[in-house]
Specification:
370 residues; 2 domains; 62% helix; elongated
């Protein structure tokens, strides 16, 4: 059954990307500067996630307390510290007490850590690169699962209508009544923080070590597994499937009245065949656009859950923002840089969504419209 559904989705995507659609995509890409920016950002973040073991300067968990809280390039910090007074190499003692004084200690940036280090001396650039894996994979898998549930519910409700439509859409309305973050926290609390460990092919095959040695990067132990917060993926899908259901239902209500659907029904085609061969392919365009927006929304939700400590993954943009809270007044970059990564990713995905919307529906005037 699941394989049949996946086959139908694959055929629907092939129908959506017809030669005319491809021409529209190319035309909108040429006309829109923001589309190029969005695609560049998304490709950069995806490349970071895929090739993290090959490009990260250090292992994300490698600590060096002597290099803790180093600023990023272009910045320096000044911190007042109490130090012991010495004369001729000896500690000064007056009235039986060691004499101390306050001195300003300056910490300068180094090329070894271009984005600085956190409170435990871990390289922030490496953690941002590896954090992309967690956030982006949760966004992709969560969106895929939400789309599978939501599109199935929405097409069923829109095609059959009547009592089926009322029952399914009232269930969707109930889901919308709960704040997404509160519902996600409640579900994680019920199910716990289950994680899925996927072997990293670059590390397990030894290619990462060979490549890093070739480039002169540190050859320390890189994480051998990709750790995915499995509970979070399921939770964000259950929270966001409603949007796919509502969009696909609206499309199904429109498509089911088309003449080709009536003709297929008159020729004796079954309901499941009509939905898979006619309704779904002609409803996939807005679903694809919604999917790009939902990936961004799920990344934000995953970051919020990680920030609050409900993710279970120890390398995540939201988790790193939480770690930097106690250093906000002195080491702002620990929280700010992962936050910038989240902002750039969400902006890039939304720009790609705008590009797809303008290409799939040329009647809408976007940034490159006339």
């Amino acid at each position: 059954m699941l394989s049949d559904i996946l086959d139908q989705i694959t055929r629907a995507l092939g129908s959506a990307l017809s030669p005319r659609t491809v021409r529209n995509l190319k035309r909108e890409l040429r006309r829109s500067v923001l589309s190029k920016v969005g695609i560049a950002i998304v490709v950069l973040m995806l490349s970071m996630a895929v090739f993290a073991p090959l490009i990260a300067p250090y292992s994300p968990g490698q600590q060096n307390l002597e290099e803790a809280r180093q600023p990023p390039l272009g910045f320096s910090t000044a911190e007042t510290q109490e130090v012991t007074v010495q004369e001729n190499g000896s500690v000064v003692i007056e009235n039986g007490q060691i004499v101390t004084e306050n001195r300003t200690v300056y910490e300068n940036a180094t090329l070894a850590h271009p984005l600085g280090t956190d409170g435990n001396g871990r390289d922030i650039l490496s953690r941002v690169i590896y954090g992309a894996r967690t956030s982006i994979l949760v966004g992709l898998f969560g969106t895929g699962l939400a789309a599978l549930i939501g599109v199935t519910v929405g097409l069923t409700a829109g095609y059959y209508g009547d009592k089926v439509d009322d029952a399914l859409m009232r269930a969707a309305d109930i889901m919308l009544a709960f704040p997404s973050l509160v519902l996600a926290i409640a579900l994680v609390g019920v199910w716990g923080q289950a994680v899925v460990r996927i072997p990293d092919p670059f590390v397990t095959t030894g290619f990462a070590g060979w490549w890093r040695e070739l480039l002169g990067l540190t050859t320390g132990t890189m994480p051998s597994n990709v750790v995915l917060p499995g509970t979070v993926i399921v939770v964000v899908a259950l929270v966001n499937w409603v949007w796919f259901a509502r969009v696909s239902r609206g499309e199904a209500l429109s498509v089911r009245e088309e003449e080709y659907v009536k003709a297929a029904r008159a020729l004796g085609a079954g309901n499941s065949r009509i939905i898979g061969r006619h309704v779904l392919p002609n409803s996939v365009t807005p679903i694809l656009v919604l999917a790009t927006i939902q990936v961004a929304a799920i990344i934000l939700l995953e970051s919020a859950l990680s920030f609050l400590g409900f993710s279970g993954a120890d390398v995540s943009w939201g988790f790193d923002i939480a770690l930097g809270r106690q250093y906000q007044s002195t080491s702002w970059w620990i929280s700010t840089i992962p936050g910038i990564a989240i902002v750039l990713t969400v902006i890039g995905l939304n720009l790609v969504g705008d590009w797809l919307r303008d290409a799939f529906d040329p009647g809408i005037e976007g940034e490159g419209g006339v």
